[in-house]
Design a protein that fits this description.
This protein has 1612 residues and is mainly beta. The chain contains eight helices and 107 strands. Strands 1, 2, 4, 6, 9 and 10 form a six-stranded mixed sheet that branches. Strands 59, 60, 62, 63, 64 and 65 form a six-stranded antiparallel sheet that branches. β17 and β18 form a beta hairpin.
Length: 1612
């Protein structure tokens, strides 16, 4: 597609770092420092900065800009440093001398440096640098400016075309849109403007593709596309060979995956760019990076675009977990293009965004429908579109049971049908086509029949909506309009093409301008890797003039122009220092020149050469040739001459001798012509091909010369380079090998076989040869209906992929491929070598007999003591015997013009001598308090970092540790070593080339620590005390030799020495007396000394200590004549060994225990086979333990066991099934296994085992067997998968387990979500500031996912949602007007989903209307006009009510209600009366205060009316407090709310106090207490068992007191 410049160390998005040259210069200049600001390079000029001084640095660096052409670009920077740095600006390419375009400013107030670039264009697109310099250093940062060019710049193109005419050729300007079929210099610029073809979009440079080559943009798109889109993409780019495409696609994907593996772990869920909402397009994918600091870049059409995480920006990136969402806002037509996402330099994802140019002719209209009626929205588009996006309440609508989306055949009419409308369907619906949208309301009117309220209404078959227009007729008219526009475009294109053809023919047939004979001479020159000079003499008007010219060459890859002339040596002139000599020929008067493009070059012939040197034009080989050939007018020139030139718009040629001189023709290129040597010059056949508005022509003047055969061994004359224009109009370079020979005339009647050989370049760039047999004839178009035979017909494929035919006259011979020369089979590879060690560089050529040369850092190497060069066939090897630092560098091997390079890095890491390392590794043993030393020599490059460690902790110099360092060794001195210093000693060396470690061990010897207790008494009898203790915790570095013991009899002061015993920590003292107490002292003896003593507690000799009871015996097996028993040792042996056991038995039903063994013959083992049993009887057993003190208590009896042969295990249980499931339990049932005599016996119990699906181990649910055939497995994990099995068991053992056929989910049976409340409110009004609570109950299984939405968008954080298994509650503690909206709950599980919407209107008492005015427009009426209420704009339900009162009545009467305007006309206004009006504002909450009108009319004056009022007696209205309605008993379920209320009276108003269990509740915030108009209430939002109790309410005033009580019972 196009190349994107990757950024490896950018200063901001889209910026690049300093160049390699700058980096090398800075390395030499000073010390590099790292700035805190990324992308800033700081160079310090001196090593040590003076105190208080600093190098420059950037506080704020300029950021990269991508800006549209013609706008203002501003770079800003803030710097710091002491002394204050001087700030300058620069750019990588070009100068900044234009002060009108580049303005540099400085703001002293903010310290900000600014670079302003006015009216940016493509020429200002560059990398700009900001320098901050003071005397101690400099800081540099860069910022890139990318300019988006809009449209084709006609003026700019004309300027560049005029530059070509003046000789300034810009190769990048020549594009396929500028026709190369005529010379630009001969056309007037005013006329040439007519020939320019306008081009839409940005004037980008397009690469010329060979026939059959696939656009790189194709691969970028298809590698990120789905397989279902392959066919569409291939058709769009004209790719037909699917097999080759798929193979190459697989290779490219593999390469991309390998590149992506450097930076990412996974990338999936790729979703291509699509329009998501009004003016928003986005694409997304899931990405997991290996390094979270990796940078992500966004490109559009190969140009990096900035983005932000702020959603208000044009391009934004939103990250949700692993998901990345890129969004483009405020969509416009120019936002279409190829978007790419890169991580560092690796492409991740490409998506092609296309915006259709479509608009709405007829937009959707508002639809009013009744409940259960269908509603239709429809629209008409300006362009055919197969599908548009329909949205309702900001959600995309899809085809289904609720919605039907249809499109007409012409794809212009689109309709949306909403079936069975309900109140939930009302809202705003929109249609989106590309970036154009339109929207309209759907209003659903409720059924006004009160009889059907609360009942399900029948479905209606009527349909509401529609525009009422004839959409079919509109669509037909639009189709005709589109067809007419397409035809006009085709006609305009044909007309423009015909005009271009006419101008080309006129320019072709126009006679050349006459030569004035002024004797101008031509010079040849070109740029490249050489130059030439050519001169000649021409006397067109009798005068001899000569000029010589030379052009100095420049390296850069441009073509070289050389001339070969046959002329006298005496006529040669020119500067030999600057020009190469032309090749002399023995013939005189003949000249041949092959020139590259040089608009100012003049070519001069010598001798008898006549006529201008006309450049060859390249034939447009991609189009089929026409059978029309036109001949140009004869040229009157005579003589012989040949010229083969590429395009030279200003080339002039002059003849000599008897020829007429004329200037070189500057008209259109003339096609090649085969010239008869006997014919007169100037017959000039012209070949002309016209197809698809393209012209391709060529003319050869003089003889047709063949190219020479390439001889790789020929040195002279080789390497001539010429520049030519290919079929696409692009400048290219080609090189001829060997001398340039003149063309020879081919006789059309001559016989083939002359074997002309010409060299050509294939489409792949490979040089080849081919030979023409017979004359070179024009290609002819073959009539498919004519009979061929005059020539061979071949098929070829043009650039567009179209198959065509053409015929060659004469046999077509195969091309001959020339050996490309020596190639590298394997090149050099980078080598890392240690200093002093040998290193080897090796490569392999394709030729065994080719010699080569070795270079290091561009200096040729020769064999010496340090280097050895060898060749073994095609393998070339360079060996460096002992690498030194100076051997590092870049090595290059050259052979036959080919070269390969590699780096040799000589490293000098830290190293140890093996003998020194072996000696260092030996442990160092030292006694406590002494000193020791560790020393180890090393070698390695400085600087070297040396670190010593002891037991993993780094050692530093202190009182006992000293570290010595030198260039060759390091020494660690440890003084006053302690026992705790014992451990590993490690030295670690590190430099720039590596790290090395060595490990030793330090052992510090000291006295051992005391033995460890507690002392264990193994035996304590009347004649023996046997004790045991633990070895010392630290033996001091030496093994224990002996333990020294002393004994003291309690009550005596002396200690008896028992002596040393071997190093076993136990002792048996046989010299004791019965009943005496003894104490022992124990010390450890090693080679380093004797430890501290350990003293034992008092130990008594001969104390009776009976063992504890053994565990109950267990039955190992039972038979008719024998029962085998086992048991275990008692937990407490009485501090002496067990001498044996006595066993007793008892028959079931008997109280007598009988011994199994004689009491004087204890059982020594812990098992016994009891044979004294009777078959069929049931027995139990118990056992006694015996030690030196006597018998223990008997053990608990064993289980009863029958003396009979063992049974067979039972079989599998039958009919195992699941009876019920829940989230925590699974109930099972089964039948008993069948009995088979001799095979399986009856089951006595069952074990149930369970395991999770991901586990392999079974867990037994019951410890003891159960008898019932049902069981409930509890404590399960909700929604987990379990395998369950049942095992039957009897006396014969466990049977075979029976598994369920499939796993079971721990969940109730599936239930589709449904709401259980029969009377759910769909509309509620709440006063602003009060709480909003919506509680909805539902049932669903498995546990559903509950989602609340407000107007189809997620809720704010201030809204509290509480979900349980069967209900969900929405709570807004303090509501605001902005909380008004439609709240929707969506309950969804695996079975389905259900939703319910509640419209909440948060409002307040409206504010009164503004001033009221009265007008009389018609007699007998009054028009009341008032200013709207301030709440009218934010409350769409607000309306007005008007009341009237006249002077004859004392009451107000409502004359108008539900007025939604601000004017009302009152009728029946009687004269002679005064009228007053009041205007109220009303809404769902209530009525505002009135706005009074001025008095209207005048009241008749009446006589004074006197009323004699009777005298009234004053009445005392005070009453004592009393209950009108007392409290009643309440019983509330746990978790529900409870509401208590009563009615009271009293004057004055009594004080109310609530009590629970005689504790006041008035200050308790857990209860809501209100007293409104004598109704006292107490509300408990969520009842708990703590609320259980007696509640009292007391009312009292100055006139008395009353009390009422009740009891609240909480039900579980």
């Amino acid at each position: 597609m196009w190349k994107k410049s990757k950024v490896t160390d950018q200063t901001a998005t889209g910026q690049g770092g300093p160049s390699e040259a700058e980096q090398e210069e800075e390395k030499k200049a000073g010390i590099k420092k790292r700035s805190k600001v990324p992308g800033v390079m700081i160079t310090q000029f001196i090593e040590v900065l003076p105190e208080g001084k600093s190098t420059p640095d950037f506080l704020r660096k300029p950021i990269a800009l991508t800006i549209q052409e013609g706008k203002l670009a501003i770079f800003k920077a803030n710097v710091c440093g002491d002394p204050k740095p001087e700030v300058t600006w620069g750019r990588a390419k070009g100068d900044m001398s234009d002060t009108e375009t580049f303005q540099k400013k400085y703001d002293e107030a903010t310290g900000e440096y600014t670079l302003e670039i006015h009216r940016v264009s493509g020429e200002e697109a560059d990398t700009y640098k900001c320098y901050a310099i003071n005397e101690y250093g400099k800081a540099i940062c860069t910022a890139a400016l990318n300019v988006i060019e809009v449209g084709f710049k006609k003026k700019k193109a004309m300027e560049q075309l005029e530059d070509i005419g003046r000789g300034r050729v810009n190769q990048n300007f020549v594009r396929p849109c500028v026709r190369p079929s005529f010379v630009l210099g001969s056309v007037d610029p005013a006329e040439f403007r007519k020939l320019l073809r306008k081009r839409k979009g940005v004037d980008k440079e397009e690469a010329v593709k060979e026939p059959g080559e696939i656009d790189e943009r194709f691969w970028e798109i298809i590698m990120s596309a789905d397989r279902k889109d392959y066919e569409r993409i291939c058709a769009e780019f004209g790719v037909k060979d699917f097999r080759v495409m798929l193979k190459k696609l697989s290779e490219k994907k593999k390469e991309r995956q390998e590149e992506q593996a450097q930076y990412i772990e996974t990338i999936n869920n790729l979703k291509h760019i699509d329009i998501k909402g009004v003016g928003i397009a986005s694409f997304e994918f899931d990405l997991e990076l290996k390094d979270l600091s990796s940078r992500i870049f966004l490109y559009k059409d190969g140009v990096m675009i900035p983005y932000s995480d702020e959603e208000e920006m044009k391009h934004s990136l939103k990250t949700v977990g692993k998901k990345l969402i890129f969004s483009v806002r405020d969509l416009k037509a120019e936002d279409a293009g190829l978007y790419q996402v890169d991580v560092e330099e690796v492409n991740l994802f490409s998506t092609d965004f296309k915006i259709p140019t479509v608009d709405f002719i007829v937009k959707i209209q508002e639809v009013k429908a009744k409940e259960r009626e269908d509603a239709m929205f429809e629209c008409v588009l300006s362009q055919p579109c197969p599908r548009i996006k329909w949205m309702g309440k900001n959600a995309t609508l899809e085809e289904g049971e609720k919605y039907t989306i249809t499109v007409s055949e012409d794809k212009l009419i689109h309709r949306l049908l909403i079936k069975d409308c309900s109140q939930l369907d009302k809202g705003i619906y929109s249609a989106a086509a590309g970036i154009k949208t339109c929207s309209a309301w759907l209003i659903v009117e409720a059924d006004s029949d009160p009889a059907s309220h609360g009942k399900k209404k029948t479905r209606k078959t009527t349909q509401a909506g529609g525009t009422g227009l004839d959409l079919g007729k509109l669509a037909q008219e639009q189709q005709e309009k589109l067809a007419k526009e397409r035809q006009e475009q085709i006609d305009a294109a044909n007309k423009a093409r015909a005009e271009e053809e006419r101008l080309a023919r006129e320019a072709l047939l126009a006679p050349p301008p006459p030569d004035t004979g002024d004797g101008d001479s031509g010079e040849g020159g070109d740029s490249g890797e050489g130059g030439d000079s050519g001169e000649g003499k021409d006397t067109g008007d009798g005068k001899n003039k000569s000029k010589s010219g030379s052009n100095k060459s420049k390296d850069g890859g441009k073509s070289v122009s050389k001339s070969v002339g046959e002329m006298k040596d005496s006529e040669k002139e020119g500067d030999d220092k600057k020009n190469k000599k032309s090749t002399d020929d023995s013939d005189k008067g003949k000249g041949s020149s092959n020139n590259g493009i040089d608009p100012n070059a003049n070519v001069e012939g010598d001798g008898d050469s006549k006529g201008p040197l006309i450049p060859d034009a390249v034939i447009d080989a991609e189009k089929e040739r026409d059978d029309k050939y036109k001949k140009s007018t004869d040229v009157s020139d005579k003589g012989k001459g040949a010229s083969n030139n590429d395009i030279d718009p200003n080339a002039n040629g002059e003849g000599d001798g008897d020829s007429k001189g004329r200037k070189g023709h500057t008209g259109p290129l003339i096609p090649d012509t085969v010239i008869d040597p006997n014919a007169k010059m100037g017959t000039g056949e012209t070949e002309y091909t016209d197809e698809s508005a393209k012209c391709s022509m060529r003319t050869r003047q003089g003889l047709l010369l063949k190219d020479s055969v390439i001889d790789p061994n020929v040195k002279s004359g080789t390497g001539e380079t010429e520049e030519y224009i290919d079929a696409a109009g692009m400048h290219s370079v080609r090189t001829r090998q060997g001398p340039l020979l003149k063309d020879t005339v081919i006789d059309p009647n001559g016989q083939s076989g002359t074997g002309e050989t010409e060299e050509y370049t294939e489409s792949s760039g490979k040089r080849s040869e081919r030979t023409r047999q017979g004359p070179l004839l024009k290609d002819t178009v073959i009539d498919p209906n004519a009979q061929s035979g005059t020539g061979e017909t071949e098929q070829y494929t043009d650039v567009s992929g179209k198959r065509s035919e053409r015929t060659r006259q004469g046999p077509l011979l195969k091309d001959t491929v020339i050996d490309p020369g020596v190639q590298f089979v394997s090149g050099l590879s980078n080598v890392h070598a240690l200093i002093g060690q040998p290193a080897e560089l090796m490569c392999k050529l394709s030729n065994d007999n080719c010699e080569g040369t070795w270079y290091r850092d561009s200096k040729k190497l020769t064999a010496d003591d340090g280097h050895r060069m060898s060749r073994d066939g095609a393998n070339h090897k360079l060996v460096i015997n002992r690498c030194q630092e100076e051997d590092s560098g870049k090595y290059r091997f050259e052979a036959d013009g080919r070269k390969t390079e590699a780096m040799l890095n000589v490293e000098d890491p830290p190293r140890f001598d093996p003998d020194d390392l072996s000696a260092f590794s030996q442990p160092v043993i030292v006694k406590v308090g002494n000193s020791t030393t560790f020393k180890l020599p090393f070698v390695g490059r400085e600087p070297m970092k040396i670190q010593w460690y002891r037991k993993g902790e780094e050692l530093l110099d202190d009182n006992t540790t000293k570290i010595e360092k030198s260039f060759t060794q390091s020494r660690l001195l440890l003084s006053k070593c302690q026992r705790k210093d014992t451990g590993e000693i490690k030295i670690k060396l590190k430099n720039e080339h590596g790290t090395m470690e060595a490990i030793s061990r330090l052992i510090v010897l000291d006295k051992p620590t005391a033995p460890q207790g507690p002392v264990e008494v193994l035996e304590s009898t009347a004649s023996c005390i046997h004790i045991k203790w633990r070895a010392p915790k630290d033996d001091g570095g030496c093994p224990v030799i002996n333990y020294n013991l002393e004994r003291q009899q309690v009550g005596r002061n002396t200690w008896k020495k028992l002596g040393d015993i071997p190093g076993v920590p136990e002792y048996k003292d046989n010299d004791v007396e019965h009943g005496r107490k003894y104490c022992y002292r124990i010390r450890v003896v090693t080679e380093e000394g004797v430890s501290e003593m350990m003293e034992t507690d008092d130990l008594t000799a001969g104390t009776l200590a009976f063992p504890s009871s053994p565990a109950p015996p267990k039955v190992a097996s039972a038979f008719n004549n024998c029962i085998n028993l086992t048991w275990s040792t008692p937990t407490d042996t009485g501090k002496s060994r067990i001498l044996g056991y006595n066993l007793e038995k008892r028959k079931k039903g008997s109280n007598l225990w009988s011994p199994v063994n004689p009491t004087d013959e204890p059982i020594q083992e812990k098992k016994r086979a009891v044979t004294d049993v009777v078959a069929g009887n049931e027995y139990e057993f118990r056992v006694y333990a015996i030690n030196v003190s006597g018998l223990s208590e008997p053990s608990s009896p064993s289980e009863f066991i029958f003396a009979k042969d063992p049974k067979n295990p039972p079989g599998k249980v039958e009919d195992l099934k699941v009876a019920d499931t829940s989230y925590t339990a699974i109930s099972l049932s089964w039948n008993k296994p069948t009995e088979e005599v001799g095979v399986q016996d009856e089951a006595k119990g069952y074990f149930i085992e369970v395991r999770q699906a991901e586990c392999i181990d079974w867990t037994r649910c019951n410890v003891t067997p159960i008898i019932l055939t049902t069981f409930t497995v509890k404590s399960l994990k909700a929604m987990a998968m379990y395998w369950i099995r049942v095992i039957a068991i009897n006396d014969g053992g466990e049977g075979v387990a029976q598994d369920l056929d499939n796993y079971i989910l721990a969940m109730p049976p599936p239930v589709r979500p449904c709401f259980t409340d029969n009377k759910m409110k769909s509309f509620m009004v709440v006063r602003a500031g009060n709480s909003v609570r919506i509680l909805l109950n539902f049932e669903a299984s498995p546990w559903p996912e509950v989602t609340w939405l407000k107007d189809d968008v997620p809720l704010l954080k201030r809204v509290n949602i509480s979900n349980s298994e069967s209900s969900s509650q929405l709570l807004i503690t303090s509501s605001e007007r902005s909380d008004s909206g439609i709240y929707t709950i969506v309950v969804k599980n695996l079975v389905g989903q259900e939703s319910f919407s509640v419209e909440v209107r948060v409002t307040d008492d409206p504010k009164p209307p503004g001033p009221v005015e009265l007008e009389e427009n018609v007699p007998g009426t009054v028009t009341v006009i008032w200013e709207p209420s301030p709440d009218e704009k934010r409350d769409d339900h607000l309306h007005y009510s008007v009341s009237k009162r006249d002077s004859t009545k004392g009451s107000w009467s409502t004359v108008a209600d539900r007025l939604f305007n601000n004017k009302f006309t009152a009728c029946n206004i009687m004269p002679g009366r005064e009228y007053h009006f009041r205007v109220y504002a009303k809404n769902d909450m209530g009525m505002s205060a009135p706005s009074e009108s001025p008095t209207w009319g005048s009241e008749r004056k009446k006589d004074t009316f006197v009323v004699n009022m009777p005298a009234y007696k004053t009445f005392d209205l005070r009453t004592a407090p009393a209950f009108l309605v007392p409290l009643r008993q309440h019983t509330a379920p746990k978790g529900y709310e409870c509401y208590m209320s009563c009615a009271i009276k009293g004057n004055p108003k009594p004080r109310v106090t609530w009590y629970r269990n005689n504790i006041s509740l008035n200050t308790n915030t857990n209860y809501l207490i209100t007293n409104i108009c004598g109704v006292c209430s107490l509300l408990i939002l969520r009842v708990t068992p703590k609320d259980w109790g007696e509640y009292n309410i007391q009312i009292e005033s100055a006139l008395g007191r009353a009390e009422s009580s009740t009891k609240l019972t909480v039900r579980e």
